[in-house]
């Protein structure tokens, strides 16, 4: 029998000091339980939109798209119609999991060497970083294939919020302030997000009438208005000739996107990843996301171990990230079946001992021929820079359909450039590619290629029925956040709210493990004695999740404090 080492935080999580949360509206709650459907997002307006759709008879996919569109208004530095994302969806009638790849693509003019020699930050704030947007195509495919309402109807709540405005909270203010030096260098961005030359004050009402008008026109004209029509032309013009503020000294590189790239874009249905874990089935997103493969491999490694504690969690993550860097990208021949095989997991698990592995861990050989404990071969790839932002939402409806949806524009504030007159920030998704030179790297850029992502929307099933959905923002820490939530819930026996609230650490095959202050206070001495080295990361992830509690009851969970706290809601609250 495998022994589970339960960290002290699992039983004393309520005593762990948490970072002080900004003041929140009284209606915003991180946990809700009830019936008829549920939603968790980072934002009250988005959660309200989703619940409103559910109450009017819409299904989970309808609600997810409506919430995603509202997040483009209230979380514009993390999402928007000029971005992309991934959906993992359970269709209760068909009893099948589907995934939609709405990841941005590189223009056809991009090559493996396009980004070489460019400083990362200079690459971010440029037209060169903007990928062909996938979000609108994602919404369109999702609603046509799985929804019950039109895109025009799904956009109505977002149009309303953009027109009437929303109350600026501390997170929105701070994110604006952190981007102010970039934003002021673009006329359209400064006009929208730096009124009177400064970030909007906390408590003020922020309106985006240009975005409201853009959504209205999109509702009227449909996705082709973006993918080859007038909106597409304006996006291409902005990418190729960024509206730099006169007198700015910033070196803003023009991009490569053409209208033909937009016409060629397609959102894609892909097969999900799947692993068996503790008798349950865990579904995730396949490449070009590395979320499903890396979370799945780490779970397989943990299941192959005789005991599981925080040391094992960190080491399993280290090994899975070594394999991610070596094998996963938007390329033919990713050895996905072998990466997620029990044989490979056992081969990797035998590398884990009583002390931390030497840095960096080398990748394994997912070749189908597995030995008791071979020495890994090859060299580890460094972790590429990824923007820490993105957003995630979960929705379930009264029929049992479930959506886990990550959407993003990459870094906080994307590439910093608002399309003039449209109220939309462009993404900087192409900086998720490896800049190179890196011969053989599966994540080098290429024409039409989708950059590797860490987004990990995840669904867990027990005996064929969904029991949990989870996901998070956070760049490559998304993977470890989702993994740690699952470990907290199913290895350490925490409730789902405690599993999200517990302090986090992220090991991504790096020399030092990043950890939140509360994690360091609780576990640094114990894990340091095992050879782990730590560095502070003040905040890791901003997860949302839900769990089916039986007899139709659902628990929706968002962060209590990270990124200002999230908003969980249900259609019919349970009586206390």
From TrEMBL:
Residues 358-383 are annotated as: Disordered. Pfam families: G_glu_transpept (PF01019). InterPro entries: GGT_bact, GGT_lsub, GGT_peptidase, GGT_ssub_C, Ntn_hydrolases_N. Cleaved by autocatalysis into a large and a small subunit. Residues 1-23 form the signal peptide. GO terms for molecular function: glutathione hydrolase activity; leukotriene C4 gamma-glutamyl transferase activity. Transmembrane segments: none annotated. The active site is at 390 (nucleophile). Pathway: Sulfur metabolism; glutathione metabolism. It catalyses: glutathione + H2O = L-cysteinylglycine + L-glutamate; an N-terminal (5-L-glutamyl)-[peptide] + an alpha-amino acid = 5-L-glutamyl amino acid + an N-terminal L-alpha-aminoacyl-[peptide]; an S-substituted glutathione + H2O = an S-substituted L-cysteinylglycine + L-glutamate. The keyword Ion transport does not apply. One of its GO terms (biological process) is glutathione biosynthetic process. Keywords: Acyltransferase, Glutathione biosynthesis, Hydrolase, Signal, Transferase, Zymogen. Its EC number is 2.3.2.2, 3.4.19.13. L-glutamate binds at residues 103, 432, 453-454, 475. NCBIfam families: g_glut_trans. Belongs to the gamma-glutamyltransferase family. This enzyme consists of two polypeptide chains, which are synthesized in precursor form from a single polypeptide. This is Glutathione hydrolase proenzyme. It comes from Nonomuraea diastatica.
